[in-house]
């Protein structure tokens, strides 16, 4: 497995990449993730936390009535998100922070959203546990990401690509977060695998019996 980047180096790389991100992700949005943001954001309700909010590409797809908070570790990405929110007339509390140690009290949100973020966290298990912690009982977790395919040849190609993407931006191609979501205490309500198993969409709930 490729060596993970340190937190400071990873932040610096994303800050440098921020101005190119929307342009570069546009192709993959159309070819690989088409409709994914809409699928996720349309299900959000109440107090919503967008983890790894990035440049704010999700903002156009949330229902008008939700109350939004977004967090990202890249100041440059957040600056673009602030501009996008202003252009959309969308109110959102944007904060700099670490998804692996969310700066919010337990049971703060009704919905947690993470689109194309789990592939980039150094410790995705810690991030999922934090998402569980800040959700209220019966709260909803909504995920979209590229994941390791079940097809062996495709997964082999992802493994080779990962050797490059991890070094470039800390971006993993072969992760499979669904078992970690269940391990954290979530109950899966809906899960879809798309594009030869390379894209996963997940809707899960934190049971009330799990406490805060």
From TrEMBL:
Domain Methyltransferase type: 49-142
GO BP terms, alphabetized: methylation
Keyword line: Methyltransferase, Transferase
TM segment ranges: none
Any one GO molecular function term: methyltransferase activity
Originating species: Prauserella endophytica
Protein's name in the database: Methyltransferase domain-containing protein
Pfam name, any one: Methyltransf_11
Coiled-coil region(s): none
């Amino acid at each position: 497995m490729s060596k993970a980047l340190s937190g400071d180096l990873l932040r610096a790389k994303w800050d440098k990449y921020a101005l190119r991100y929307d342009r570069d992700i546009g192709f993959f949005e159309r070819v690989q993730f088409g409709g994914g943001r809409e699928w996720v954001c349309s299900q959000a309700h109440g107090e919503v936390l967008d983890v790894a909010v990035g440049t704010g590409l999700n903002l156009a797809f949330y229902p008008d009535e939700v109350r939004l908070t977004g967090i990202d570790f890249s100041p440059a990405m957040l600056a673009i998100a602030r501009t996008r929110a202003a252009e959309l007339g969308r109110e959102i509390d944007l904060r700099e922070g670490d998804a692996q140690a969310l700066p919010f009290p337990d049971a703060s949100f009704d919905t947690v959203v993470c689109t194309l973020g789990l592939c980039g966290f150094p410790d995705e298990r810690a991030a999922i546990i934090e998402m569980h912690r800040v959700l209220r009982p019966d709260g909803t977790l909504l995920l979209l990401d590229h994941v390791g395919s079940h097809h062996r040849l495709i997964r082999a190609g992802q493994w080779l690509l990962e050797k490059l993407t991890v070094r470039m931006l800390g971006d993993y191609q072969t992760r499979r977060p669904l078992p970690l979501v269940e391990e954290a205490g979530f109950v899966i309500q809906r899960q879809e695998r798309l594009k030869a198993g390379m894209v996963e969409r997940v809707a899960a709930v934190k049971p009330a019996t799990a406490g805060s």
